[in-house]
Amino acid sequence: MMTFRARILTKRTTFLTWLFIALSSSAYSQPLHWLVQKGKQEFLILGTVHVGSDTLYPLPERIEPYLRESDGLILEADLSKQRVVLPTANKGDFVVNLLSDSQLQQLETAAKTLGIPSSRLKQQPPWVVALTLQQVQFSQLGYEPALGVEKVLTQKAQVNKVPVFGLETMQFQIDLLGQQPDNGKQMLLDTLSEWPYAQSNANCLIQSWKSGDKDNLEQLLQTENMNEEFADQFIYSRNRQWVDTLLTKASFSEGKFLVAVGTLHLVGSDNMISLLEKQGFTVESLQIPTKSGCEFMEP
Q1: Is 66 helix (H, G, I), strand (E, B) or coil?
Q2: What confidence score (pLDDT) does residue 151 get?
Q3: 234 to each of 15, 147, 158, 173, 225, how far by Cα in Å?
Q4: Using CB atoms within 10 A as the burial measure, which of 44, 68, 72, 168 is most buried?
Q5: Low-confidence ranges of the chain (pLDDT < 50)
Q6: CA triple 233-239-242, angle to 5 deg
Q7: Reported pTM
Q8: What whole-number distance in Å separates Cα of residue 164 and Cα of residue 229?
Q9: What confidence score (pLDDT) does residue 13 get?
Q10: Element (H, E) at 137
């Protein structure tokens, strides 16, 4: 679920928009991916996007053969176990009671561009509204969760009888979103302030992901204007926890595994690759990177 921009969006929404990023291409995509080895453990770690279309594929040619021969597919969360409970929220936590008149007008404008009634959105917690706006926008651009990288890899794993594991639960991801201050009010405000640039920036992010443009992707985190607590909750603490799970969970103690996680967990400080390298793993970059040729727009 978590399941979820450009040069470069400067607010925390940038990270969350990745929950819904997709890609278009007629050739092999070249997203960031590495072969990581130590002793009896081997991981092929792939940076993902969580929605897509038929034009997203094929992935790099090494990915599917590796999956078929692997001892398991490791995802942020096992997508086959999707039952979650939404955090409870009272009316005081709804958008209509948290946003000013001018902010509500911004919401109405964004909703109108998508053809969805703002009256319904106003009766939801802000984090739900922010994700809804992004989901609907990407759907209208032709990108769906069913064709996201994790979904496609899960289907291929099931066909080939490869076990699927989750580094965390989907319930954890939902709770993380719902536990933001004011039910994610700032997340929604950032989404609305960036709305005029959302489509252009999404296209640039898509191209950056497709090209494996690590410089662009690293700038994404370096220039974000997010507070330390938010960054640690949504990115860095999860990176550390995931690496600890890879190192300590008995199921992963030996063998070869395809690890597919959101790309922002693989760049910047305390990314999963550097954390594993500090633990004595050898790291080999496998992508053939090119420059994306785009720039991100700021509000």
Answers
A1: helix
A2: 93
A3: 8, 24, 29, 9, 14
A4: 44
A5: 1-26, 225
A6: 115
A7: 0.86
A8: 31
A9: 41
A10: helix 126-140
